[in-house]
Amino acid sequence: MTTPPPPDNTVLALYPPRVNGQTEPVTGAHIGVPLVAYGLVTDGEGAYVLVDPPLAGTLDPGDVIELWLKGETAILDSQTILDPNAITTLRIPKGRLHPDRVNELYYSIKRGSSNIGTSEPPLGMLYNRIRPGLKDRLTNPGGHSELALLLPEEIKNGVSAGFISAEVCVAYPYCRAYDRISLKCNGELLSANVNPNEAPQPPDPGSEEPITICFIVDRAFLERAKRLDQKLHFSYTVTDQIGNGPDTDAPWSPVQTVDEDLDGTLLPMPILLERMEDFPGDDASIIDLEKLNGNPLLVIVVTADNRFVVDYGVVATFTAKITGQPDVVVTVSGKVEADPFGQKKTCILEVPNDKVIPGSAVTVTYDVSKPAGDQVGTSAPAHAQVTGTRLELKAPSIKEADGNSLAPIAAKDTLTAVVPAYANMIGTQLRVTWAGTAGAGSHTTELVTVTTQAPQNIALDDKVVAFNLGLPVKVTYEVIRNGGTPKESESMTLAVQKIADGDAQLPTLAIDGAVGNELDVNELEDQARTRVTGWPFIAQGQTLWLRYFDTKEDGSPFSHETYAGTVIPADGAPGGLLPLAPVDGLRELEDGSELRVEFKVDFTSSVNEQDAVTFPIRRYSIVATPKLMIDTSPLILSGHNVVMDDQSGKTWERYSDPIGTAERRQALGGTPPYRYVPSDPGIVTVDDQGVVRSIGNGKTTVKVLDAECREATFEVITHNVYKYIVSPQKFSSLTAATSWIRSVGGIILPKNHDEWFVFLMSVFPRTPHSKYEKFYAGDNNFMFVNNTKNYETYWVGTSWSIGFYHNGEHYGMALLYP
User: What is d(CA 517, CA 401) in angstroms, rounded to the nearest whole number?
Assistant: First the structure.
């Protein structure tokens, strides 16, 4: 590491170094090193430092001059002396100077290894790496983006004849004490210095945070700047004390042009307002579209000047300019008017909202002329910038509607307005208005604060639908931004349809005790009621009609009126109605007649029945005769029974019904006589008296019919029924008989089972033709039955069949078939 020699001029008296292009004097150091002398040197090697030779004879060729910054250990530059009497040039390399401290520069002279002299004191240098105003951030021409010129209202709104002086301010980043600000107006310059107490003092380099500096502009300066076009063009630049100016691509701030009327020849400029209530205090240089809220721009012409006379005409010209687009020019006119006391009124003109173009620069002037057309004067122009976006509020929609048509029943539970999304809606407040019939047919919601940038669903009172049936309704919403004046949206015209008579979505009334569409008046209780459940939009105040129509048993007409334009009872909403049914009258109705019950409602409380909606008509078939009844519990016949199947053609008559094989089910009510029809006649028989007899095993249903074909049913279950088959022919042998038995699926009567024969004798009586009856019991045994119904068992060695005798002849055999 090179060790810098300590400052020591005890050997030689040396002149201080000089920096080529240095700035002096400066406050806070000996010199300043501007960017042009250091960082912007053409060869890029940094600043040139010049060292004058000491007294003649004190330097020798071969001596070395070294350049140093105090406190640093790295040498800046060095040169070997060739001509002791010539100026020596050294360099300060780029990047070595510090912008946040005083840089102390010195040099030393070495002869061999000895230090024979050091410049003293070190040269104090200030260096600002960043220009005042930082860098212009915009590439388009028009001035430095970071140099803000803040003109006061007295100048910005036009310089009038009464102007004396005003404070002008500038603001820019990297503002430092001792900067020099140059304000230019039409080529005239006014300078102001930044005081030490207004900005950081050296060697503080400053910051990106703009600092505002203000100074006075007086009338004399503006008088010098006056031009024939009566325009004042303002801009400024700034130079730090070192000599650095702003970005060389944009050394001046953007030009601001104002109107000049120091001689007082122009009429007062108009005042531009979004809302009258904002004056005074409104920023006249801004036209806020959101504050304008869709309303016209107000051009206020104050008529206090003596050149305004009642009935003089006032014509204002509004011009909106946007770069690259055609100018929008609008003229609006009025005249000077007087109030009832003869005093001149302020003239208020209006520019249509759609002519106030977002982002445009606006200029407004007006001319005053006599009624004959002679011009009296022209105003100073008013200038403003249009900001914000036009708040376009599209029409809302109704969620339950089909486009612009609403079927009322669709809104029976909810009615919802859908507000479309609009610009910057978060934080705004809105409310929806349903404008229908006066009073209960209209509704405005409470204010709702919007929290999402999305369409808003706003619940409305669905009761308003009923008061607008068949009528048009206007739906709008209002938006309030920042507590300002509400702005109304475009409107939606909604056609609310009528509720059709008999609409299936309306409830159908019912009478207590009715089953489906049948009303048995015999079953009606004395306090039976007609029930109407709550209907869509049911509300107190609605009017009702309830009527009954039919024919009495004697053929005369029947009618009854419960409600006739009657206001809904207090307990009728919202659950519905429970009026008493006309039970006494219903009990007189003709059997089989049709009862018609009509119910109507007027939703708007009118007593004009023609306006009412007819609900679905209830029709009942009247049952006036007693109901056909029978025991419907299952009938079980499980007693042992025999059915004779005599294939020889003989007819058998029953003597009696065995216990458990027959039972009577007697029908009651209805219209006699009754018929009993089993669904399976192979299982039971039923006679006209309702006696049911088992004739087969299984389950069947018996239908009971009266004379009017009313019906009732019950179930029958049978067990233990046997078929006794008699063969149609004689057999010559036991083998043949047995074969036949098997062919018909039968069994031979068991041996020694006399109970079977007793059972058969108890069921079937002797026929007139039979003197003897023999029942084959197998194994050559048979039973003989005589005319007295006594029976004995005989052994007949050659007997092979059960014989049924007639005139000494036997006819076939019999067997049991379960």
Answer: 35
- Whole-structure pTM value: 0.49
Are 580 and 512 a contacting pair, CB within 8 Å? no
396 contacts 419 by C-beta, under 8 angstroms: yes
Give the pLDDT confidence of 331-363 residue by residue, as tens digits. 999 999 999 999 999 999 999 999 999 999 999
Q: How many CB atoms lie within 10 A of CB 628?
A: 20
What digits encode the pLDDT tens for the residues 672-706? 999 999 999 999 999 999 999 999 999 999 999 99
Q: Which of 446, 392, 454, 447 is nearest to 426 (CA)?
A: 454
> What is the C-alpha separation between 748 and 245, in angstroms, rounded?
141
Amino acid at 483: G
* Contact between 169 and 214 (Cβ < 8 Å): yes
H or E stretch at 518:
strand 518-520
Measured distance CA(356)–CA(486) in Å, rounded = 19
Any idea which of 29-38, 205-214, 259-268, 445-454 has the lowest mean pLDDT?
A: 259-268
Q: Quick one: residue 669, left, alpha or beta (phi over 0 = left, psi -120 to 50 = alpha)?
A: left
SS (H, E, C) 453-512: CCCEEEEECHHHHHHHCCCEEEEEEEEECCCCCCEECCCEEEEECCCCCCCCCCCCCEEC
**Rounded CA separation 498/407 (Å):** 8
Residues sharing a CB contact under 8 Å with residue 684, sequence separation 6 or more, in sequence order = 637, 678, 692, 693, 694, 695, 696, 700, 702, 716, 718
Q: In sequence order, what DSSP letters do the residues of 358-402 get, joined into one string? A: TT-EEEEEEEEE-TTS-EEEEBPPEEEEEES--------EETTSB
Indicate the pLDDT class of residue 776, thresholds 50, 70 and 90: very low
Would you tell me how many other CB atoms lie within 10 Å of the CB of residue 607? Answer: 13
- Residue 604 and residue 611 in contact, taking contact as beta carbons nearer than 8 Å: yes
Structure tokens at 139: 């590439």
Integer angstrom CA distances of residue 316 from 267, 287, 368, 382: 12, 17, 9, 11
Nearest to 423 by CA among 395, 389, 472: 389
The rounded distance, in Å, linking the Cα atoms of 151 and 236 is 11
The set of residues, in sequence order, having a beta carbon less than 8 Å from that of 494 and lying 6+ positions away, is: 398, 401, 404, 405, 406, 472, 473, 474, 475
